[in-house]
């Protein structure tokens, strides 16, 4: 009997310690590995889980070089990959709710407390066969407009971009068009050459990484104030999540909360570092004030939410919207 007990104990210890016993989740990102978001993902989520050698480990497959961003969410939906780090806007064409992260102006704590997060969870479950395990960078992710020209001010719009070519995505199209810009949708890796050749004269972009990609060589101004917010979600395939044990779910969710808590400061640090590169390159801040600042922010949010109002949703949009957003007057 004693021999059996010792053997059982040895087996239990071996099972806990051996990496092969852990649930290994295949993860995919929508950015290059050098991107700030991926670095934060590794530092506060992937590496801690793998270093712990506990119930869950992450096998990071790669980013756009493995799966194009527009195909990443469908891959998660089908279970080809288990975990996805991606801006919701990248799969915004699949369901209306995916257009909402990033344009909220309430805190994550408020959204969780008022039931908005639960409604989002329902939408991701029904439309993408996914569970949201982290909504990251709240307070650290924000956006600016960067230009190679000095913008013309407008009391109605904040800035007048009529006739100017601005690099864009679906997230920015509504307000850039409202300001009169000609939007040019190109991928991030093509921005450098587009700026160099004059294909675009500016862009809207998250705080940070401008200097990392060398874009400051062609940009002269950054327009303030900042706008929008956290748009990066970490998802897990719902079937995969349901197959995990209680211990595996606990470790995964615990690290996801830590990731949420630490990621904002990482983005702030990287943003400050990028600011120094821009300043060294001579990029100047244009700080809109008074009625111009109000018009600028009002135009940005009003244009985007006007588009959102026309979309089709799985959950009750009229109930969800006020849980995420307070109208700007």
Structure description:
There is one protein chain. It is built from 11 helices and 13 strands. The protein has a 5-stranded mixed sheet, with helices on both faces. 44% of the residues lie in helices and 20% in strands. The protein has helices at residues 2-17, 36-52, 69-78, 108-113, 116-128, 173-178, 191-197, 238-243, 246-281, 290-308, 317-324; strands at residues 23-29, 56-62, 83-87, 130-136, 143-147, 152-154, 158-160, 165-168, 182-185, 202-206, 221-227, 232-237, 284-287. The chain is an alpha/beta fold. It is globular, with a radius of gyration of 22 Å. The protein has 2 domains: 21-140 and 230-269, Bacterial extracellular solute-binding protein, family 7 (D-Maltodextrin-Binding Protein, domain 2); 143-228 and 273-324, Bacterial extracellular solute-binding protein, family 7 (D-Maltodextrin-Binding Protein, domain 2, 3-Layer(aba) Sandwich). Residues 1-20 have low confidence and may be disordered.
Key descriptive features of the protein:
329 residues, alpha/beta, D-Maltodextrin-Binding Protein, domain 2, five-stranded mixed β-sheet, four-stranded mixed β-sheet, globular
How would you summarize the topology of this molecule?
Layout: H1 2-17, E1 23-29, H2 36-52, E2 56-62, H3 69-78, E3 83-87, H4 108-113, H5 116-128, E4 130-136, E5 143-147, E6 152-154, E7 158-160, E8 165-168, H6 173-178, E9 182-185, H7 191-197, E10 202-206, E11 221-227, E12 232-237, H8 238-243, H9 246-281, E13 284-287, H10 290-308, H11 317-324
Parallel strand pairs: 1-2, 1-3, 8-9, 11-13
Antiparallel strand pairs: 3-12, 4-12, 5-10, 5-11, 6-7
Helix pairs in contact: 2-9
């Amino acid at each position: 009997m004693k021999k059996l007990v010792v053997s059982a104990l040895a087996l239990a210890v071996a099972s806990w310690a051996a990496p092969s016993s852990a649930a290994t989740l295949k993860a995919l990102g929508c950015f290059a590995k050098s991107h700030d978001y991926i670095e934060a993902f590794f530092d506060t989520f992937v590496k801690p889980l793998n270093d712990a050698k506990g119930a869950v480990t992450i096998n990071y497959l790669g980013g756009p070089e493995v799966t194009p961003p527009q195909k990443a969410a469908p891959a998660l939906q089908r279970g080809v990959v288990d975990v996805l780090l991606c801006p919701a806007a990248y799969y915004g064409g699949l369901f209306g709710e995916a257009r909402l992260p990033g344009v909220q102006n309430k805190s994550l704590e408020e959204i969780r407390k008022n039931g908005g997060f639960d409604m989002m969870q329902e939408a991701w479950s029904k439309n993408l066969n996914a569970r949201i395990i982290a909504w990251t960078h709240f307070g650290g992710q924000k956006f600016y407009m960067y230009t190679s020209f000095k913008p013309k001010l407008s009391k109605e719009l904040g800035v007048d971009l009529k006739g100017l070519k601005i690099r864009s995505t679906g997230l920015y199209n509504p307000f850039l068009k409202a300001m009169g810009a000609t939007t040019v949708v190109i991928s991030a890796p093509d921005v450098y050459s587009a700026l160099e050749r004059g294909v675009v004269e500016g862009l809207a972009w998250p705080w940070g990484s401008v200097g990392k990609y060398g874009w400051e060589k062609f940009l002269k101004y950054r327009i303030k104030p900042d706008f929008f917010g956290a748009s990066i979600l970490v998802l897990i395939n719902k079937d995969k999540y349901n197959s995990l044990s209680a211990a595996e779910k606990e470790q995964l969710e615990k690290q996801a909360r830590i990731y949420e808590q630490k990621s904002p400061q990482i983005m702030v640090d990287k943003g400050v570092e990028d600011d120094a590169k821009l300043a060294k390159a001579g990029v100047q801040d244009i700080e809109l004030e008074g009625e111009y600042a109000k018009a600028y922010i009002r135009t940005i949010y009003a244009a985007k939410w006007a588009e959102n109002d026309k979309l089709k949703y799985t959950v009750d949009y009229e109930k969800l919207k006020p849980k995420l957003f307070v109208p700007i007057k």
